[in-house]
Amino acid sequence: MRLENKLSICYTAFNSAQNLNKQFKRIFNECDNVKYKNFLEIVISDNCSTDNTKKIVNYFIKKSKQKKNIVIKYSRNKKNLGFSNNFIKLTKLVSTKYSLFMNDDDYPQKGFYREIFAKIQSKSSNTMLITPIANSRKYYPSFFGFNKVSYIINRGSILSGIILKSEQMKKYKFYSKNLYPQTELYLDYFLKHDFEDLEINSVLKNMDVKNIIKYKFNDRMKRGNDLAFFDKIEILEKFYKKHKINFVEFFYSVYSVYKWGLGVKLELNKQNSQKYENIFFNQIMRYKRKKLLKLIIFLIFIKNIFTKYSFFYFKTFRKTIL
Q: Mind giving me the DSSP string for 133-169?
């Protein structure tokens, strides 16, 4: 049975030629046959790229017209709108039942789209579907199940591999113009419709070979000296103040963001990047809820007290109370 406009694979693009070329090859190798006709749509909002992004996309647009199994929608901004506005624009370009959001540098294993195709045929609810990624394969309950919000905050910030019902997604009005508009959308969507991990074998793996964290300070996202740390906190503060999440969910989520932040500090320390370590740490210590901040850093220290990094976490906690 042929399906009409079932799934959009959605990309925000900026100087993405090399990565998109790999993404298109994976999609076309798996899905350019009659089985997927009228099923798959690729949507790209190009944020005024200065590389060969447009040339690569046009090549695959021509290729798609040969067999007509895959539809490609390409929109190029006349000027760089910034990531947030470009993502918001992307959500409005979708015309299918489901939207799958992807970073151009998160590459799916072979069989990824075939598995998704097979899985969503039987789905009818509005539940958010989350595909596995290499370093965070699925949700594990903790803290009496209050960690769902923190899971969405941290898993959602990756952007890739989240599937939403497009009709429900389009109802959301964005408020925070920070570097994680997708996280704001995902959290609101989850609170209304819940989520489930999509049980597939293929995972997403980041193609960025520069895994040295200091390079993240000057990446395409323009994350700044705190690596957009407070963009996540800003979203949590907004949902908490609007009573969309309770204090326990809020506290555990802020705790999880700081646990990630101190993990970044540890990696910078291990990579002998003291300059960036100090800059980053000084930035994330600016949180206005000082008592809450001290408690969280203390709890992270206690959690790591019997690990080989206990002294590192002790010194970090000591800095917060001096």
A: BTTB-S----GGGTTHHHHHHHHHTT-TTEEEEHHHH
Residue ranges of domains in the chain: 7-206, 213-321
CATH 1.10.260.40 for the 7-206 domain, yes or no:
no
Q: What is the pLDDT of residues 109-119, one digit of tens each?
A: 999 999 999 99
Write the single-letter amino acid at 71: V
**Tokens 């990756």 sit on residue:** 158
Q: How far apart are CA 113 and CA 36, in angstroms?
A: 10
Tokens of 49: 């790229």
Residue found by looking up tokens 């999440």 in the block = 245
Q: Are 115 and 201 in contact (CB under 8 A)?
A: yes
Which tens digit of pLDDT belongs to each residue from 7-32? Answer: 999 999 999 999 999 999 999 999 99
- pTM listed for this prediction: 0.93
What confidence category does residue 2 fall into, taking pLDDT thresholds of 50, 70 and 90?
very low
The answer to whether residues 254 and 284 touch, using CB atoms and an 8 Å cutoff, is no
Handedness of CA 38, 53, 100, 88 (dihedral sign): negative
**41: phi then psi, degrees, rounded to nearest 5:** -130, 135
Classify 19 as helix, strand or coil. helix
Q: Which residues contact 215 (CB under 8 A, 6 or more apart)?
A: none
Q: What is the DSSP letter of 286?
A: T
* Residues 89 and 57 sit within 8 Å (Cβ to Cβ): no
DSSP letter for 307, please: S
Residue 95 C-beta-side C-alpha neighbours within 13 Å:
12
